[in-house]
Write a structure and sequence with these properties.
This protein has 2 domains: 1-85, Rna Polymerase Sigma Factor, Chain: A (Orthogonal Bundle); 100-183, Winged helix-like DNA-binding domain superfamily/Winged helix DNA-binding domain (Arc Repressor Mutant, subunit A), CATH 1.10.10. The protein is mainly alpha-helical. It is 73% helix and 0% strand. The protein has helices spanning 3-11, 15-37, 40-56, 67-84, 86-99, 118-131, 134-145, 150-157, 161-178.
Length: 183
């Protein structure tokens, strides 16, 4: 079954077709939510709520080819809403502190991260993503991690392509400064 057929069947109430769409996009939405929050439980909750809302709103989707972007838009809106919740912010801050690594990451020969594993590097990058301002974080996740185009990211975030471009450049500069010791 191709995606457009599955979307159209889902719009007619076919739960099996919608299951196909969930199977196809669950990992991507989960990855987006986890990269944004740093919390597996929260990412799972966001995924479940995203697909529940998508199923309930399938009839509102006008173009079957835009399902992926539409689902990402639902997820980013949920993530933004959760980020405004002060309890969520406290949980995210606790998660960041729990995952913080020692500040000394140089080997005896002065080579940064020579002794740090790939998993630890990923944790460091994740920690910095969580510290990044929201507008830059979402653009970074959507474009650099999920592989969306700037045009698609602009549609999901409801802003212009030039805004996305500016946010992406700011995010790259921000990350470059924060991760300079890795380079």
């Amino acid at each position: 079954m191709d995606e457009c057929t599955a979307v159209e069947a889902s719009q007619a109430g076919d739960r099996i077709a919608f299951g196909f769409l969930i199977d196809r996009y669950y990992r991507s939405v989960y990855r987006l939510a986890y990269q944004y929050t740093g919390d597996h439980h929260c990412a799972d909750d966001v995924c479940q709520e995203t697909f529940l809302r998508a199923f309930d709103g399938m009839k509102n989707l006008r173009d079957a080819k835009r399902f992926r972007g539409w689902v990402f838009m639902i997820a980013t809106n949920l993530l933004r809403k959760r980020a405004k919740d002060s309890e969520s912010r406290k949980r995210f801050a606790t998660k960041i502190n729990a995952n913080s690594l020692a500040t000394s990451t140089e080997g005896d020969d002065g080579q940064p991260f020579k002794l740090v594993s790939g998993k630890e590097r990923a944790m460091i990058i994740q920690r910095h993503l969580l510290e990044m301002p929201e507008h830059m974080r979402l653009v970074t996740i959507l474009i650099l991690m999920e592989g969306l185009s700037q045009k698609d990211a602009a549609g999901i975030l409801n802003c212009s392509e030039s805004s996305v471009s500016r946010h992406l450049e700011a995010a790259r500069n921000w990350l470059r400064a924060k991760l300079q010791h890795l380079i």
